Amino acid sequence: MKYYISILSILLVLVSCSNNENTMTLTGQVKGLKKGTLLLQKIENFTLVTIDSIVINGEEIFNLTSIVASPEIYYLHVKISDGTLLDDRIAFFAEPKEISIQTNLNNFNTKAIIIGSENQNLLNDYNQLMKRYSAKNLELIEQDFNGKKDGNDSLVNDAQQKQRNILSNRYLATVNFAFGHSDFEIAPYLMVHQVNNINKKYLDTVYNKITPKIKDSKYGKALESLIKSREN
Fold first, then answer.
1. Average pLDDT over residues 4-11
2. Per-residue pLDDT at 83
3. pTM of the model
């Protein structure tokens, strides 16, 4: 009798989850993963916790679920058959809808294709924008190195000044991107996780622009807390 009650309890939980409008269904495929475990994780109270997992044994296709109260960053980790947790992980913007991740074991993170998340699409655009600044900064790091090697102070000073300009421009580009997408959760996310030490007036500018729905999201509340901490 207890056995049937347990089965019924599990079924009730599954039905409840599937009917919840905040449910994210994550499906996809990890080519090359024949045996292992996929872990769906997120950060709670500064700790990475596992929300769902699935054991892969021959079948590369996976299906994971989670209740997502408001869009936030989740992680997909892979643990291969010998129990080794690979260093690579796929960070993506989870949303309460169907999302698909297609990747392969050898390039688990770098080749991941994520479909179905509007915030993820915007995050992809933002990361593409930031690559321009990263490429310029790498050139200046090389210039700085060569200047120090040759004892050329003028070259070093020039490189360092340009690096400061790039950092400033990257921060302003982030603020502009967040401001231009104030009706998405990515706006407060970028302010909190990419430029949290920027001048408070920019935090206020973006916070005052985001919609009430976004202010009530996880990252909207985090941005509000950040602003209040600055006031104190």
1. 42
2. 67
3. 0.86
Q: Are 177 and 190 in contact (CB under 8 A)?
A: yes
Tokens, residue 53: 């997992």
| pLDDT (average), residues 34-63 | 93
Q: What pLDDT is stored for residue 91 in this prediction?
A: 96
Residues constituting the chain: 232
Q: How many CB atoms lie within 10 A of CB 138?
A: 10
**Is residue 223 exposed (0-12), middle (13-18) or buried (19+ Cβ within 10 Å)?**
buried
Fold of 22-116: Immunoglobulin-like (2.60.40)
Which residues are paired to 99 by β-bridges?
A: 26
Token pair 């200047």 is at which residue? 147
For the chain, percent of residues with pLDDT exceeding 70: 91
The radius of gyration of the chain's CA atoms, rounded to the nearest angstrom, is 22
Q: Where are the domains of the chain?
A: 22-116, 121-231
